[in-house]
Amino acid sequence: MIKKIRMIFQKYMIRPMLYQCVAKFAVAMVLCLLWDKFLNQGGYRSLAENALFVAGCIFLMLAWIQYLRLDGVRIHHLLEEKEEKKKKHITKDMVDFVDEKVIPFGELDDDERIVCRFLGDLLCALVCLIPSLIAIMV
User: Fold this and answer.
1) How far is residue 72's CA from residue 78's CA, in Å, rounded to a whole number?
2) What span, in angstroms and rounded, lies between the C-alpha atoms of 134 and 16?
3) What are the tens digits of pLDDT across the range 29-56?
4) Least C-beta-crowded within 10 Å: which of 50, 76, 128, 134?
5) What is the rounded distance in angstroms from the CA atom of residue 47 to the CA atom of residue 36?
6) Distances from the Cα of 67 to the Cαs of 76, 87, 92, 93, in angstroms?
7) Angle at the Cα of 56 (from 50 to 57), degrees rounded to 5?
8) Maximum pairwise Cα distance, the chain
């Protein structure tokens, strides 16, 4: 399966993967801070030990679901994406300083989207679990 991910992953997929990762991580941090504010009023539990650990486990679960989707497993009527007619928008290309073409997440094919989500979820899980495991060990 690693070979399949390496075959699908291209350099232009880094930007959509990071955008996915940043958005998911921001939502996770807001939920962790809300947990710390409202559910942890006594201050008995550390934010890093509990909330980040749970967020990291949720990201690992999401990564596992994307890994299964890449392998061909589908849960009918729950995780299937609706078949949409792909409309081509006539827009001009945005060019940044290195003249590389910017490809948005919506223009990637299905396997590329799954790989971007998988790698983004893994990256978010690492960012959440590493501080959590360090806080648990200390």
Assistant:
1) 15
2) 29
3) 999 999 888 888 877 778 888 899 999 9
4) 76
5) 6
6) 16, 28, 34, 32
7) 90
8) 56
For residue 12, what are its two tokens?
């232009």
Show the 3-state SS of the chain: CHHHHHHHCCHHHHHHHHHHHHHHHHHHHHHHHHHHHHHCCCCCCCHHHHHHHHHHHHHHHHHHHHHHHHHCCCCCCCCCCCCCCCCCCCCCCCECCCCCECCCHHHCCHHHHHHHHHHHHHHHHHHHHHHHHHHHHC
User: What's the one-letter identity of residue 107?
Assistant: E
Cβ-count burial 98-123 (b if 16+ within 10 Å, e if not): eeeeeeeeeebeeebbbbbbbbbbbb
Place of tokens 């792909």: 86
